[in-house]
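Lay summary

Proteins are chains of building blocks that fold into shapes. Our project writes down both the chain and a compact code for its shape. Here are two examples, one after the other.
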Amino acid sequence: MSAINPLPLPRAPEVEQRPEPVAPPSPPGQPRKPSAGLTLGLCLVASLVTALAIWTLANRAVDTSSGSSAGAQARLAEATGGELQKSLRVGGTIETLKYAAIRVPRMRGPRDAGRADLTIMSLAPAGSIVKAGAVVAEFELKWLVDHIDDVESSVVRRQSNLKKHIADVQILKETERQARVTAKAEYQKALLDLKTAEVRSQIEAEVLKNVSQEAHAIWGQLEEEGRIKEVVHDASIRGEELFVREEELHVGRHVRDLGRLQVKAPIPGMIVLESMFNKSGQFAQAKEGDQIYPGALFMRIVDVSQMVVNASVNQVDAQSIRIGDEAVVGLDAYPGERFRGRVLEIAAMASSGSAGSRYSRGKPGAFIKHIPMRILIEDHDERILPDLSASVDVRASNRPKGVLVPREALRSANSRGSSYVYVHSDGQFLRRDVRVQDVSDTEALIETGLQAGEEILLSGLPASTKAYR
């Protein structure tokens, strides 16, 4: 068997080797950005260096403190003798002790004036200082002046009518008097004729008697009517006089109204314009040209020589405040500024404060009571203006005396409130129990256990320091 030569294997196709792509060169003038890995590495190295530096500084501080004396680290204070000053912080609003409320004048004249509102013609600027009697506001006057002229003309006409009526009544009275005189004369004549009845016939005598009786009746009737008519005539004259007086009062009321339309300051002080609702439904201050209703409060004149702070204090804290206690007033508008003051008034009754839960039984606000009070500002300053918010530190007048230490020096021994301090003596800090009589926000009054002049520890040593004994 002859050997069969195998067929040669086909060669693999040759693959063309392409060159790897090369990043295009950056434009000239622009540096190449570092890679993300390099940036992360640099950040990690910086963090490690910072942590190492902090750890080194901390160890150095520990070494330094451990090698120094105990007295170099401690914050010390010296116990002093004096009065414990306690203060109570309250908030309020600046107001004036004396002021005058200025309202739109109410017209006292009859309704035929026909004015439901008044127009402001001139108004003193807010913040200006005025003297007593100065005109601070003026309302429209022309319509009232014209109305007064009309009413005065009516008064003159009424007075003329009264004079004419009096003259007419005098004529009537005289006519009626003459009628009564004539009737009386007729009666007297009839009496004379009746005396001749003896020489006359019986019929003629009877006629004379009837005539005399008739004349007497007529005269009596006229006298009675005269008395009644006298009353009627007097009443008619009085009625006309009342009409005249009514018109005179009409004029007088309008003249007084005319004076009210020029509002004058009753006291000297500063002008403060009040905000109110105008006809446009907006809440704003009054200005010239506005029409406002009579009786509306649109201005106050405040006496800035005496300013007070209207505040309120909790019913518990009020027990420590007395009239006349000193106070320090601060204005929120001027931080750092302080003014002297004193408690002027404390109300006798408390008012409800905002407290209580809406789900609790009873009326909300019925659990916490506040008592209104006034603090008089004794210092005078142009910056103290009405309606500014203020804070007041009231200093209690009852100031007990004794040994005073900073409040932070006290340490509590147990839950029952026993206290102690560390006294610095010969480089050591000795624990000493003390009895606290009273405390304020910053100081404590020591009753027993400490003397004035001794140094006490405030802070600075850990509790495990061996210097504590």
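And here is the second example, written the same way.
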Amino acid sequence: MKKLDFKNTSKALVLALSMVLTFSLVALVGCNGNGDEAYVDENGNNDVAGESLSGMLTIEGSDTMVNIAQAWAEQFMDENPDVMITIRGGGSGAGIASLINGTVDFSLASRDVRPSEFEDGAAVGVEIIENTTSYDGIAVIVNSGSGMTEISKDDLGRAYRGEITNWSELGGNDIEIVLLGRDSASGTFAFFQEVIVGEDEDYSQTMRNIQTNMGIVTEVQTNPGAVGYVGMGYVTDDVVVLEVDGVSGTVEAVRNGSYVLARRMLMNSDGAPTGLAAAFLDWVQGPEGQAIVEEEGFVPVN
């Protein structure tokens, strides 16, 4: 009877077990929770490969960004039939609150995240990261009946604080100024207040709060004394866009920073996005997503 070589046999068993464990680890790294293939980039980040994307994303927030986000989602889903992306508005503040509550993958914001919101997130373990997707300029629009084509930043602030009530005080026609603004949950409302009205000042109590950009455009079209502010992408030929401090809200003026009402458009995440969320953000910031940015009247990040 042949004597067993326990020493060599043990070595063989250890080698075999090691190979099984290695294969298992490779399999785990090569697949994410949705069954999508994944890879590790040069920074060690685990990300989803483009050929096998699947899963769901929920995105909520800025009404200014709803149209562009919907356009991104529709084209991305066309290219990735196993992906479902849901887009909801409600305002920048509402989207950030949902991100902190853990009910969305991204929050859309047309203003920077406030220090208090960073703190609220940190208190529940949420690390809010601001991901810039595009730039926008807020257009100040009036009805042609106002007789106005330009305004200074200071006079615009005086008007929205209620200190100026007739366009004739600014060289326009003798007609009462009708102030239109966004609702208080809107990032546009907060940004305009900070830059124009004054961070420690209040809007005039006569200002009418309107929920959407298009609602303001529609009202300005029909009200001779109306003035409002909207995202550049919502401007129509039926309103007059005022120069502010002698600068028009053009793409180039937004890009070079010479326009006082230029701002970032953000998709905020809880920590650095991974998996499907990372793939979608990369696509939005890439050539296809940025082409949609231009089509929608916003300014690309590149």
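What can we say about the second shape? Residues 1-50 have pLDDT under 50 and may be disordered.
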